[in-house]
Design a protein that fits this description.
By secondary structure, this protein is α/β, with parallel strands linked by helices. It folds into two domains: 3-113 and 265-353, FAD/NAD(P)-binding domain; 123-263, FAD/NAD(P)-binding domain, CATH 3.50.50.60. Helices cover 32% and strands 24% of the residues. It has twelve helices and 24 strands. The chain has helices at 12-24, 47-51, 64-67, 121-124, 131-150, 154-160, 170-186, 191-196, 215-227, 335-353, 389-402, 406-422; strands spanning 3-8, 30-36, 40-42, 61-63, 72-82, 87-92, 97-101, 104-107, 111-113, 125-126, 162-166, 199-204, 231-234, 238-241, 245-248, 253-255, 258-261, 265-267, 284-285, 311-314, 319-320, 367-371, 377-381, 384-387. It is globular, with a radius of gyration of 23 Å. The structure holds flavin-adenine dinucleotide.
């Protein structure tokens, strides 16, 4: 009988685990099922490009069915799990609830924005984690300009032309830089807004932006943002968001209709409903091979008919995988770690099924790239630091090589080059996906 391998989550970790399993396992020996709440992998490092309109939103995703040939894709929501009967609870896209039995479960459910109990944050701010967030940001910038252009009152116009980002990790900085670059081009089409001017503020609680890169590169990135007129406020936190502005800890309330929250992530909430051991941050506790300690799982329930060896593994942002390069700490939540963990966990699953030994996950970050728009970036590759145009070329080449599928790469190339020659697209098709009603009343 074929082994049942179920992967929960089809992002970087889950997708690369499925791809490696397809390669490593003979077709008859195992049946691999991937459950994801969308039929695509979201290539998050390119989200800033979608928000900044250098990339079509559809081109920053990878359709899972076109890349996975032997994996069964179930589009639906993972809602829970019962490790005692080795089953994963899923609500399929058609609304039906099903329990998927497994011998081996790989949890790769990723993360969501980590919010704080700041008044007005949930009501008025936007996160930056999904395709919808990126599209909303882009549309919002244009809608704000359309409204500001029509207003007679300069004070109200100031609100619509104020943009505040909170959190200056690379995701926040890249998002802000791309969006500001986009807005700086788009505003040329709005004479009144152009004369009035925009205001962009980046607030960061720590003393420097982009903690992921060395201080020299974060200084370069900060200088680049300031050169464009972006106000960088380090050591500053958000106190309150209203529909009209963002109150900061330095005492100023910045008039702004757009507040974007990019201050960290936490594991997907459903992870807490899987009956697995969690650390204080809510991540699944695993050993160095990425396996959940069988001693911390409930014994198989007799009535469930479960027998033989089973295992639960967890990878990516939702797991606390011990970091071999920083003893005592978990791996950082990055795509580069999730991809490698996905490949390694597949090898470990195959080894376990074949009676072999699972190997520990070992990886040292090889580099970081962060695009800043305007053909600027910062990057570190194999210890070498890059900035400016060479870093920008490295960043784009890196994403081009990493994007799965030749067709997807070509789409990126075309989008980037069209934007370079003709500028960024300044339309805001916010109604896409909302069909016109046929009702006559
Ligand atoms: C804007 C942005 C930019 C980034 N840039 C970089 C970068 O340049 N370099 C880098 O290394 N990292 C980057 N990251 C971080 C990177 O995206 C994550 O570390 C990586 O995606 C983690 O992989 P994962 O497999 O754990 O989770 P994900 O890739 O998020 O995959 C999780 C999957 O599970 C699905 N899912 C979640 N809950 C459920 C559920 N209940 N049921 C079914 N499916 C579910 C999700 O929809 C998703 O498809 C960036 C992140 C963001 C937000």
């Amino acid at each position: 009988m074929a082994w049942q391998i179920v992967i929960a989550g089809g992002g970087f970790g889950g997708f690369y685990a499925a791809r490696a399993l397809e390669r490593l396992l003979p077709a008859q020996s195992a049946h691999v099922t991937l459950v994801n709440n969308a039929n695509f992998l979201l290539y998050t490092p390119l989200l800033p490009g979608a928000a900044g309109a250098t990339l079509d939103p559809r081109h920053v995703v990878v359709p899972l069915r076109s890349q996975l040939r032997r994996t069964d894709l179930v589009v639906g929501q993972v809602t829970g799990a019962d490790p005692a009967s080795r089953s994963l609870a899923v609500q399929r896209i058609d609304g039906e609830s099903v329990d998927l039995p497994y011998d081996q479960l790989i949890v790769a459910l990723g993360s969501v924005s980590r919010t704080l109990p700041i008044p007005g944050l949930a009501e008025h701010a936007i996160g930056f984690k999904s395709l919808a967030d990126a599209t909303t940001m882009r549309n919002k910038v244009l809608n704000c300009m359309d409204i500001a252009e029509s207003l007679e009152d300069p004070a109200r116009r100031t609100e619509y032309l104020g943009f505040v980002f909170v959190g200056a990790g690379y995701a926040g900085v890249e998002g802000l830089a791309e969006l500001q670059d986009f807005a700086a081009q788009a505003i040329q089409l709005y004479p009144r807004c152009r004369a009035h001017g925009m205001r962009w503020v980046l607030a960061e609680a720590r003393q420097r932006i982009m903690q992921e890169v060395p201080a020299t590169l974060s200084e370069f990135a900060e200088g680049e943002l300031r050169r464009r007129g972006i106000e960088v406020r380090t050591g500053t936190t958000l106190r309150e968001v209203t529909g009209h502005g963002a109150a900061l800890s330095d005492g100023e309330t910045v008039p702004a209709r757009t507040v974007v929250w990019t201050a960290g992530v936490k594991p997907s909430p459903v992870v807490a409903r899987l009956g697995l051991p969690l650390d204080r941050e809510g991540r699944i506790v695993v050993d160095r091979t990425m396996r959940v300690d069988p001693g911390r799982l409930p014994a198989p329930r007799e009535a469930s008919g479960v027998s033989g060896a089973g295992a639960v593994w967890a990878i990516g942002d939702s797991a606390a995988v011990p970091d071999s390069s920083r003893p005592g700490q978990p791996c950082p939540p990055t795509a580069q770690h999730a991809i490698r963990q996905g490949r390694q966990v597949a090898r470990n699953v195959v080894a376990t099924l074949g009676g072999g030994r699972a190997r520990p996950f070992r990886y040292r970050t090889k580099g970081v790239v962060a695009e800043l728009g305007q053909r600027e970036a910062v990057a570190i590759t194999l210890g070498i630091r890059w900035r400016g145009f060479p870093a920008w070329l490295i960043a784009r080449t890196y994403h081009l090589l990493l994007m799965p599928g030749t067709g997807r790469r070509l789409r990126l190339l075309v989008d980037w080059n069209v934007a370079l020659v003709f500028g960024r697209d300044a339309s805001s098709p916010g109604v896409l996906g909302s069909p016109t009603s046929l009702r006559q009343d």
